[in-house]
Design a protein that fits this description.
This protein is α+β, with helices and mostly antiparallel strands. It has a domain of 55 residues. Helix content is 42%, strand content 12%.
Length: 88
């Protein structure tokens, strides 16, 4: 194998195996597979046999597509629920 230049290394597609993926995105293995099954998370690529990995770029795009959490969402409340009715 020949030494790669820095430019060639950055062009090379990076992949992430399941344990690293779980740590990175904070979801369990079963949740990741459930989301893949329903089309809400990128499908992995097959490396060999049962070995799979995810393209880093696909996961980054998924992360960017996620809505930002707000204080109201984190507390389980909605801003409208906290408003008092008029005249009361």
């Amino acid at each position: 194998m020949f030494p790669e230049t820095r430019a060639q290394m950055s062009e090379r597609e990076k992949i992430v195996r399941a344990p690293e993926l779980q740590e990175w995105i904070g979801l369990s293995r079963s949740t990741v597979w459930r989301l893949v099954k329903v089309g809400e998370f990128p499908a992995p690529i097959r490396l060999h046999g049962n070995a799979v990995a995810w393209r880093e770029q696909d996961v980054n795009e998924w992360i960017k597509s996620r809505p930002l959490a707000t204080t109201e969402q984190e507390n389980g409340s909605d801003e409208q629920d906290n408003q008092k009715p008029a005249g009361g």
